[in-house]
Amino acid sequence: MTKSKEERFTDRLHRNVEPIWMHTHLHPFVQGIKDGSLPKERFGYYMKQDYVFLKDYAKLFALGTIKSKDTETMSWFSSLLHETLNTEMDLHREYCHEIGIEPEELEAEQASPINLAYTRYMLNASQQGTLAELISCMLPCMWSYHEIGTLLKREAGSLAEHPYTRWIEMYASEEFGALAQWLINELNKLAKDKTEQELAVLEEHFLTTSRFEFMFWDMVYYGHGWPV
Ligand SMILES: Cc1ncc(CN)c(N)n1
């Protein structure tokens, strides 16, 4: 009889959030990207809010270098920071340019309540906590987007005339997947020395930020802003 493969810590994390991620994949905003039916103005609002999000999200990678113990780990975080600011945010700048959103408008965009709550949660937990806490906060962002991109690429059919081809291609790409995979591997390494109590804290961060991911899609779809 073959021995079943040992479960990694991130398998456990993924299993716990599967219902949330499934709802995320089926969210009308994500489905609208897939079939191209999402109105350009809605996509533009998402691009602007996501740009604000990424400005803060990128700071987590800088914090990652501060909390790293060796130059190889520092170098990975520095690549993640560079890719986010230059490759991923270039996509946002390009889409905004095409939609007619001026660079000044993009730079001046203010975070919606959900956006603010999500980034403040991650920045706070990452500043106060360990490197493992930092990665467990940031991981649903990278991992769930790669899953979504991969699924959409498989399900969308021809992307030749599709309005959101570049978005799908970026998040489905091997390059993006490799960055998410590095974070997964790193978290599994760090988890090996943790007590069950410490693992439960990591699990909580992963669950909370997975919920925020869903709420972010919901926010850009329905346009939830400040009530007054
Ligand atoms: C809200 C959100 N989550 C994740 C990603 C992928 N970096 C993103 N761009 N925006």
Automatic annotation (TrEMBL):
One of its GO terms (molecular function) is thiaminase activity. It catalyses: thiamine + H2O = 5-(2-hydroxyethyl)-4-methylthiazole + 4-amino-5-hydroxymethyl-2-methylpyrimidine + H(+); 4-amino-5-aminomethyl-2-methylpyrimidine + H2O = 4-amino-5-hydroxymethyl-2-methylpyrimidine + NH4(+). One of its GO terms (cellular component) is cytosol. Transmembrane segments: none annotated. Its EC number is 3.5.99.2. Pathway: Cofactor biosynthesis; thiamine diphosphate biosynthesis. Residues 14-221 form the Thiaminase-2/PQQC domain. It is an enzyme of class 3 (hydrolase). It comes from the Bacteria. One of its GO terms (biological process) is thiamine biosynthetic process. Coiled coil: none annotated. Gene3D superfamilies: Heme oxygenase-like. InterPro entries: Haem_Oase-like_multi-hlx, Thiaminase-2/PQQC, Thiaminase_II, Thiamine_Salvage_TenA. Keywords: Hydrolase, Thiamine biosynthesis. Catalyzes an amino-pyrimidine hydrolysis reaction at the C5' of the pyrimidine moiety of thiamine compounds, a reaction that is part of a thiamine salvage pathway. NCBIfam families: salvage_TenA. Belongs to the TenA family. Homotetramer. This is Aminopyrimidine aminohydrolase. The lineage of its organism: Bacteria, Bacillati, Bacillota, Bacilli, Bacillales.
